[in-house]
Amino acid sequence: MFTKLFAPFDRDATPRYRALREEARARFATLPLPTVRSEDWRFTNIAPLAETSFELPNALMESGPAAPKNKLQFHFLNGRFAPAISSPVPSSISIGSLANAPSSLPLVGKIADVRANAFTALNASFVADGLYVTIPDDVILETPIEIIHYARSDEKPVVIQPRTLIVIGKNARATVVERYFGGQTYFTNAVTEITLSDYGVLDHVKVQEESVSAYHIANTQVVMAAKSNFTTHYLSLGGALVRNEVRVRFDGEHAEATVNGLYLADGKQHMDNFTVIDHAQPNCASHELYKGILDGKSHGVFNGKIFVRKDAQKTDAKQTNKVLLLSDDATINTKPQLEIFADDVKCTHGATIGQLDATQLFYLQSRGIPLEPARRLLTFAFANDIVNRVKIEAIRAEMETRIVR
Amino acid sequence: MTTATQTIEQFANKEYEWGFVSDIEAEAIPKGLSEDVVRLISTKKKEPQWLLDWRLKAYRYWTTMEEPRWWPNVTFPPVDYQNMIYYSAPKPKKQLKSLDEVDPEMLKTFEKLGISLDEQKRLTGVAVDAVFDSVSVATTFRGKLAEMGVIFCSFSEAVQNHPELVKKYLGSVVPYNDNYFATLNSAVFSDGSFAYIPKGVRCPMELSTYFRINAKETGQFERTLIVCEEGAYVSYLEGCTAPIRDENQLHAAVVELVSVGEGSQIKYSTVQNWYPGDKDGKGGIYNFVTKRGACRGRNSKISWTQVETGSAITWKYPSCILIGDDSVGEFYSVALTNHKQQADTGTKMIHVGKNTSSTIVSKGISAGRGQNTYRGQVKVLKGAENARNYSQCDSLLLGDKCGAHTFPYIEVKNTSSTVEHEASTSKIGEDQIFYCKQRGLSAEDAVSMIVNGFCKEVFKELPMEFAVEAKKLLGVSLEGSVG
Fold first, then answer.
1. Is B399 part of the contact surface with chain A (CB cutoff 8 Å)?
2. What burial class does residue A361 get, using C-beta atoms within 10 Å of its C-beta: 0-12 exposed, 13-18 middle, 19+ buried?
3. Mean pLDDT for chain B?
4. Contacts of A164 (CB under 8 A, 6+ apart)
5. pLDDT band at A177 (very low <50, low <70, confident <90, very high)
6. Which of A241, B141, B186, B346 has its CA 20 to 30 A from that of B279?
7. B135 part of a folded domain
8. Hey, CA dihedral for B310, B315, B316, B317, is it positive or negative?
9. B444 — pLDDT class (breaks 50, 70, 90)
């Protein structure tokens, strides 16, 4: 159904990525959309998405206040870069639309493999716009770069294909926040490619607060060179059907990755968190902590994979998923899996599913706090454990108020 | 290479000690599988019409199924189901009352395995229903059990003598269309064991069957059915060894346990040491087994304990369906893969009733080029209020060419349940070996001791005789890499 959009899309898209688009389209034609019969998708049924007919989005007016001076904000409206309301780019770094990316940036489509995944191939079939962020060697950027995606369907549901490429140079350091929100029913199919050079540091945060009837499928792929450090926090609040994939591959030794996530689902929301940490090199460490709170008739999924390749000795991998079920109609499927082919490694994983601790509730009540506030307090504390790990003060504050509700 | 590594290498390269072929004339039917073969098996066993109909139903369904191939760390060449003999019975088939009537060649075989019937009878008081290939040839202690109302006999005898029980419970836990291998078993199963423990009886001895695959190219399709009535208790032991073979042999058994009444308990212990193939993975048994128990009664309990050291491929998920309120399911497992062995094993705990609880303790040991996978499911349905599960999966890696994998599937559908899963991976440290050597132990003993310590939690669940055997078995099968 997406194939009929190819020709209209090409009419006003840059010919620059035509080769990549053609390759991806050829690939997309051979990749069926995943079904629950596929092991990686067995708990997420995308039938509602597959049965919806999506259109290409209309261009939205670039309106709104200009970005504040002390911030680095880059806006996308229905998948198109909106420079008029975005911040000017400091000279030390390089940020802009992929359509105008320097030719020295050949990495587009090289990190997220179109061959493996139908949705990644679909995204690449529409690559034209998007954002590239290049932090040159030895540059340390204190201000967080905010990439803000807003989507809206006016009549028919639209599909947007955000694409981001983040390149962190040697000894460089940056913070990037991705934000997704919108109105009505639409489908966001995002791909984010990240590469870190030696000693590079990236602190990545994703705030997903799509409309409650939106579909959100995102694939973040990270390749890490030696001694680099990558941290991500996935904060999922919105969307009807959400699938967040994070794939981290260690390409050099002594690198460290932290992948944390928080998903809050209510109503009929379906949130699927899929992570792959590929210890392809020795001496790397990964830490993963996902927490979920499920209410209403929501359905949560956690599928974490850790691969420790042959010869990836001295790997230290840790993976934890904790889920709080607040309603008898909510369902959680969790599948934390380890595949280990090396012997000198330290790998643990754990999963707990349950409710609030009765003794903790009792303790609070014995101090005069009524049951309901005590519950809320403990639920808040459960979620805040993740929020507190986010290094950006503003996001912490924002998330705390969101959780309280 | 360190001394410890050398010792382990030597250990690793030990040949399978229990491989020998005993020459007993076997009565077999031609190779291949068809509806006629199913009918022939049924006729040979003088089965009633309803059982034949059930077999045929399974066979017809099987022809529509595809062999499962989706395990990520298990690979094997295609199995030619038409190149197998589906029935083989040792020739001297007349009923035997005492051991004197048993073929002396066969007795020798058991002696070599250290499980001679006399020995068992005299020393341990275990009633042994020895399944030699596919037909039970000797049953001991039956008289004593009969006094208490316990029925313990071969499956074929049960079909003849207690058809009402077999008809009621056969396929009630593992339906004929459950999975590829269980369906195949339903169509062609040759024999197996049947046990029925009536209300309020605590079975006075541990029931035991020794399986042994003997005739060449015979897939063995055992069927075991154990039914426990209200307040009854039984402990069942199953142990296996098999001689060296060139061709891969398929073993697709089905075990069904039914805890029918309130407070009934079944304890099922397995030591599996079938031929794992040689150092290059040639030969060896394919062990595709379906084992499942249903806790139907309130407060009933099913406990699985397994020590899996043999087979080229082990595919086995002893499961518990906890239907009765307050029922309990347990799974204790040690799985060892060596050379090119592959194991994909674990359990399923399905919580249906209120206040049900389950415990999973799985210890995987990988050595050589072995691939060891734990795959387990814990499912808590909406009505299973206050369900509780605790799972622990530990892996020990010996060597840098093996793999250890964990695939837990957890699904929870209510708020009052608590499910916990923990897993860790470790290896034997050079310092641990050094410490043991410093205390005067050889490196070999040290490795054996450490591995046995690693498995202690599971071994303590095994009945006495089995625990001893299991420890010995582990010592023999051991190998690894230290640092």
1. yes
2. middle
3. 76
4. A130, A131, A132, A133, A147, A178, A190, A191, A192, A193
5. very high
6. B346
7. no
8. positive
9. confident
Contact B9, B483 (CB under 8 A): no
Angle between helices B35-44 and B180-188 (to 10 degrees): 50
Tokens representing A244 are 């967040």
Closest CA to A251 of A319, A172, A174, A309: A309
Please, is B28 exposed, middle or buried when counting C-beta atoms within 10 Å of its C-beta (0-12, 13-18, 19+)?
A: middle
Does residue B138 lie within any of the structural domains?
Answer: no
φ, ψ of residue B263 to 5 degrees: the values are 70, 15
User: Residue B440 falls within a domain, yes or no?
Assistant: yes
Place of tokens 């030591």: B271
Q: Which residues contact B350 (CB under 8 A, 6 or more apart)?
A: B319, B320, B321, B322, B377, B379, B381
Both tokens assigned to B440? 């005067």
Task: Give me the domain span that covers residue B272.
Answer: 3-91+147-477
Q: How many CB pairs under 8 A join A and B?
A: 115
Which tokens is A308 given? 């420790």
What would you measure as the largest C-alpha separation in chain A, in angstroms?
68
Q: Where are the domains of chain A?
A: 3-252, 357-405
Chain-centre distance for alpha carbon A169: 22
Radius of gyration for the alpha carbons in chain B, expressed in angstroms and rounded: 22
The total domain count for chain B is 1
Separation of alpha carbons B396 and B480, rounded Å: 9
Distance, in Å, from the CA atom of A19 to the CA atom of A21, rounded to the nearest integer, reads 5
pLDDT digits (tens, 9 = 90+) for B405-414: 888 888 888 8
Instruction: Give the pLDDT of residue A224.
Output: 93
- DSSP 3-state of B222: strand
In angstroms, what separates the C-alpha of B456 from chain A's closest C-alpha? 20
Distance of CA B258 to the CA centre of its chain: 17
Express as a percent the part of chain B with pLDDT over 70.
72
The closest CB to that of A338, out of B406, B415, B481, belongs to B406
DSSP state of A83: G
**Mind giving me the DSSP string for B26-56?**
EEEPPS---HHHHHHHHHHTT--HHHHHHHH
Contacts A353 to B, Cβ<8 Å: 410, 412, 417-420
- Six token digits for residue B134: 């596919």
Amino acid type, A203: D
pLDDT given for residue A3 in this prediction:
80
Pairing state of beta strands A80-81 and A145-152?
unpaired
Is residue B271 included in any domain, yes or no?
yes
Longest Cα–Cα distance of chain B, Å, equals 68
Q: State the ipTM, two decimals.
A: 0.75
Residue of chain A whose alpha carbon sits nearest to that of B424: A348
Rounded alpha-carbon distances, angstroms, from residue A146 to A86, A182, A191, B28, B199: 10, 16, 16, 75, 71
Q: Is the pLDDT of residue A146 over 80?
A: yes
CA distances from B249 to A289, B187, B397 (A): 44, 18, 28
Closest in A325, A341, A349 to B406, CB measured:
A349
Highest mean pLDDT among A231-235, A392-396, B194-198, B445-449: A231-235
What is d(CA B382, CA A167) in angstroms, rounded to the nearest whole number? 47
Residue B73 near chain A (CB below 8 Å) = yes
The minimum CA-CA distance between B132 and chain A, rounded to whole Å, is: 38
